[in-house]
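@channel sequence for tomorrow's demo:
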Amino acid sequence: MTIHVINPNSLVAVTQGLDDAVAPMRALSPVAIETHTLPDGPPGIETEAHIAQVVAPLLQRAQALQDDASAYVIACYSDPGLAAMREAFVQPVVGIGEAAVLTAMRMGQRFGVISILETSVPRHMRALAAMGVTDRCAGDMALGLTVAELADASRTTARLREVGAALKKTCGAEMLILGCAGMAHYRSGLERDLGLPVIDPCQAATAMAIGAVALTRSTHGDGS
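structure tokens (generated this afternoon):
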């Protein structure tokens, strides 16, 4: 049985970053953890149109993996297709955006979110409003970089430091959430630079999926 972590965009480099982020968690999981790229997805999920575009192929990919699936992780911070996936499958389905917020609220009172683009911020705020936790968000600030541009390590690191420091000093954020799956391999460095806990959403979601699978196995004696 397997926890399937599905990257809904088509960038293999993003999937590799996700795989590296969850690699240490494999030793803690009662089942295998596999990462997947969605070839039919856009190179980055940056608009509402992109979100709508990936729902159908995401469901199809999850269906193809269903025979050995213990749980699914939707590895995009906008959680595309989360409700549809939960409706379609009996296995636990975890969205990394929702998981990151829940993890942050467990760690402290007010969190900051680092987004990729200014257009991402209203979408994130709508999601927080739907969860009823807007008051726990100290601020959401954008890097001004696309998903593809996150591969430029020097530029991305500089912007992460700048935006993260602003969320800490100006907004009073007690911890930071990386608001895109493509930022995964920058987490530890940013945490050291800023002296704040930094949450990688894919790690948060995978941890929740591991917990859900472990609970199922302890209750029913299997990983289904």
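heads up for whoever presents: The first helix runs from residue 12 to 22.
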